[in-house]
Automatic annotation (TrEMBL):
Keyword Glycosyltransferase: yes
Binding locations of uracil: I193, G198, D199, A200
Protein name (Swiss-Prot/TrEMBL): Uracil phosphoribosyltransferase
Cofactor: Mg(2+)
Group of enzyme by EC: transferase
Gene3D superfamilies assigned: 3.40.50.2020
Length: 208
């Protein structure tokens, strides 16, 4: 199942707080970062480890370390930027690739206007971040771009997913896993997730 709802009590608690209509920009940002950290923790659970020996106070000791995994975080502009730091907190050496996709409010289709990928994508794990998996158009377009550049290990983190977006993602990219804090009911006629969070970009940037 490519879309994994993280059922941890802290995630369920925090996503509930995020739904408050009058939430402040500060609180929305803080909770988004906290939830993203928890999603990133889950999404990295299968990172391979290797053994190495280091000097401990008591002499040489064999320890485990993540086996040289190179990660690129891929925030989808603009709302995905609100999740970037949450992943960086756990993977501070990750490089950042950026994709600019805006939603055409009439067709609900993504319009591609910017991209800047780091090099050697075939050797990297890409972790795409975008708060709302609504139609999945932006996520699918970003995965298409990454795959066209040779990226073979692609994962995604979202705060809320709609069943329509999950179905579209599973149909187009069944190999890509996506971790979400919640699966909501449906999309409305404007492509907003119900009950959802409203416009996540506006809430993260304090616009509107
Ligand atoms: N983008 C948002 O910000 N919110 C939604 O509900 C859907 C897409």
């Amino acid at each position: 199942m490519p879309v994994i709802a993280v059922a941890h009590p802290l995630v369920r608690h925090k996503i509930g707080l995020l739904r408050e209509a009058d939430i402040s920009t500060k609180k929305f940002r803080e909770l988004t970062a906290e939830i993203t950290r928890l999603l990133a923790y889950e999404a990295s659970a299968d990172f391979p480890l290797e053994r190495t020996t280091l000097s401990c106070w008591s002499g040489p000791v064999e320890v485990e370390q993540v086996a040289g995994r190179k990660v690129t975080i891929v925030p989808i502009l603009r709302a995905g930027l609100g999740m970037m730091d949450g992943v960086l907190d756990l993977m501070p050496n990750a490089k950042i690739s950026v994709v600019g996709l805006a939603r055409d409010h009439e067709t609900l289709q993504p319009v591609h206007y910017f991209e800047r990928f780091v090099g050697h994508l075939s050797e990297r794990t890409a972790i795409i971040v975008d708060p709302m998996l609504a139609t999945a158009g932006s996520l699918i377009a970003t995965i298409d771009l990454l795959k066209a550049r040779g990226c073979q290990d692609i994962r995604a983190l979202v705060l809320v997913a709609a069943p329509e977006g999950i179905a579209a993602l599973e149909a187009r990219h069944p190999d890509v896993r996506c971790w979400t804090a919640a699966i909501d009911r449906h999309l409305d006629a404007n492509g907003y997730i119900i009950p959802g969070l409203g416009d996540a970009g506006d809430k993260i940037f304090g616009t509107k």
